[in-house]
Amino acid sequence: MNSILLASNRGPVSFTVSEDGVLTMKRGGGGLVSGLSGVAKDQGVLWVCAALSDGDHSAVRQAPGGRLDHAGYKTGALRMLDIAPAVFHRAYNSVANSTLWFVNHLLYDTPNAPHFGTRFQRDWESYRDYNGAFALALAEEAGHGARVMVQDYHLTLTPAMLRAERPDLRIAHFSHTPWAPPEYFSLLPDDVAGEVLEGILGADHAGFLTHRWAGAFMDCCETVLGARVNRADRTITHEGRVTRVGVHALGVDGKALWARAAEPDVESHMAALREQVGERRLIVRIDRTELSKNIVRGLLAYREFLAAHPEWHGRVVHLAFAYPSRHDLPEYREYTASVQRCAQEIEDEYATEDWVPLILNVEDDYPRSLAAYRMADVLLVNPIRDGMNLVAKEGPVLSPRCALVLSREAGAAAELGPHALMVNPYDVSGTAGALHRALVMPEEERARRREGLESAATALPPQKWLAAQLDALA
Ligand code: F6P
């Protein structure tokens, strides 16, 4: 039996299976995983996650009780749930990623979407089943009085379901996304909106990345549920239970990041990139190809910058790394195509025989991303809305001279704002102007701002972030 448990959709590792049935294990992707993998292992946490790939399903089926560590994999204590693919697809793609993600990131084109009909009701049933599978596994694995940390929008119902099974447990839920204001959250059918909020209120502690998202959650509880909210104490009372709301601004572990970024594979990517771009200045962006990351407007801003500043032609290169994400959703496939189209237009307009103004890469390559961070003169992070954005925090730690152009709608803006050049993510011309200011920023100002960024970015590394949440459950 375990005394500390962590639950998230994506786990710290994933498997691929070759044609001859051989399984290969690699590190899982995404901000949550990169933040928590190291710490969870150190603290002896049991991690419960879903099997995502075919390889994961094969690995789980061969592991006793779904415990990959018991099957001899060096994963840290890990149980993967073998959820039926149809249930998983509806819960993950239709509800979590196409509905809750869209609501919390304000992504709907409302004249056309969403539509909540019978199909959605079926998908919602699957989301309940998927959350129930996590609640069941956690109830089985948790020792008496254990502390359980449930992560993110995939698992909003799990806390209340788990509490119903195991009232002895101390439960936290943490949202890695923004939270929508009540008038937008209320796009959800009323019963679904209520179930999501009451699901999270099943926890003793509901954690958010910024005060802004925590405030929006409290506003939704008050408006939608009629819950009693005490903003000064950050407590929500609903149906006789009290849930505390906490703000924990996840940051990066500078030392660990540097240790990884100093490895030879990163150095050789740096050499290759240097060969490609010469001594030109670099504007870097690194994202999942994700609607909320606002990559197209970022490219349009670079285009406007080139149009307004011919003096930079031949002297600057934009490295845009947009690695694949959520390709089961048509919106994401179309978005990737728009990114590629826009990049092609910039190349057609500006490339010369000896200057490539933009290098767009849509393959995931972690060491190459670290190389780009180390070489950046400017880092562009312009999401429409983002829970935190760890790219904005990693870049200034690794680059000796980068200036940050940052969207005011990223959670990271709360801490990094004073040291970054802030932009309205919809304002393409404003972003173009900020790119120029970042390039011409005097060295003394650049160094001062970068120092401020680095210390804010490393203020709450994952170890401390996890400890703060565990303390909140003590
Ligand atoms: O922002 C929430 C989050 O869970 C991140 O931690 C992570 O980068 C991303 O979403 C993962 O998305 P997915 O698991 O769908 O690739």
TrEMBL record:
Residues 352-363 form the Channel forming colicins domain. GO terms for biological process: defense response to Gram-negative bacterium; killing of cells of another organism; trehalose biosynthetic process. One of its GO terms (molecular function) is trehalose-phosphatase activity. It comes from the Bacteria. SUPFAM superfamilies: UDP-Glycosyltransferase/glycogen phosphorylase (SSF53756). GO terms for cellular component: cytosol; membrane. Belongs to the glycosyltransferase 20 family. This is Trehalose-6-phosphate synthase. It comes from Nonomuraea glycinis.
